[in-house]
Each structure stands twice: as structure tokens, then as C-alpha cells.
């Protein structure tokens, strides 16, 4: 049993940190290079607007399933601070920076909607105790959706 507990710890905590800390660090480093002094370069093309939804959904899944909200929110706050700092210098985000920044904003909205929707779920509340309550989509699926599929098959 000890080896299973160690494997679980590695998979759920240490492994996620080893993957996601460099991932968000690289995203932030990329974001630092997305500033321009030219206001006209800060417009997003229509295809980028259409791709913002899937990008935000992808980040939502990473944050909720990976249970890395703290890492995500620190990265987002660092991005906001950088935007305010660069704005004082007269720099604005280019289209790539806007895409990433808006994707993070929409991701935060999706996370808030997800948490709000599952706020009163007593079973998930027991599984995810603490101040930060962000249930995993897989836990929701196995708890609620899996039962629906089993009920439909029994009819």
C-alpha cells in the first residue's frame, strides 16, 4: 500500500508540478515578448477570436483536472502586473499577447462558472475540502454522468 500512496502522491502532486510549472513559466516568458509600441498591431484577427473559445476551454481543463489553480492564478496576476507595467511605458499587447491574455480571462470565467455550478454538491465538497474548491471534471463525470449512463442502460 505504501508504494501505491507514493505513486499517487507523485502522480497527483509532484508530477503535476513538474509538468505545469515549466509550462506556465514558458507561457509567461512568451507573454513578456508580446508588447509593441504600435497601437494598430494590437488587434486580433477574426480567426484568433474564434480560436479563443477552444483555447480557454483547454486551459480550463488543465487547471481543473490538474488541480493547479494556484499556479494558474499566480501566472494570471503576473500577466496583469506586466500589462500594467508596460502600459506605463507606452507599450500595448500585440495580437498574440491579447489572445493569450483574453484566453486566461475567459478561463477564469469558466472556472468561476464551474465552481458556482458545483458549489452545493455535498459529495464533491467532501472530496475537495478546503478554501479553494475546484472539482475535477473527471470526478464529476464518474460521480454524476457515469450514473446517468448506467441508468439509461438498465432501461
Automatic annotation (TrEMBL):
- The secretion signal range is none
Q: Does the keyword Coiled coil apply?
A: no
* Keyword Transmembrane appears in the UniProt entry: yes
Q: Which UniProt keywords apply?
A: Membrane, Transmembrane, Transmembrane helix
InterPro entries, alphabetically? CLN6
Q: Name one Pfam family in it.
A: CLN6
Q: What domain of life does the UniProt record list for this protein's source?
A: Eukaryota
State any GO CC term.
Answer: membrane
Q: Where are the transmembrane segments?
A: 20-38, 68-85, 97-119
**GO terms for biological process?**
lysosome organization
What name does UniProt use for this protein?
A: CLN6 protein
Q: Whose protein is this, by species?
A: Brachypteracias leptosomus
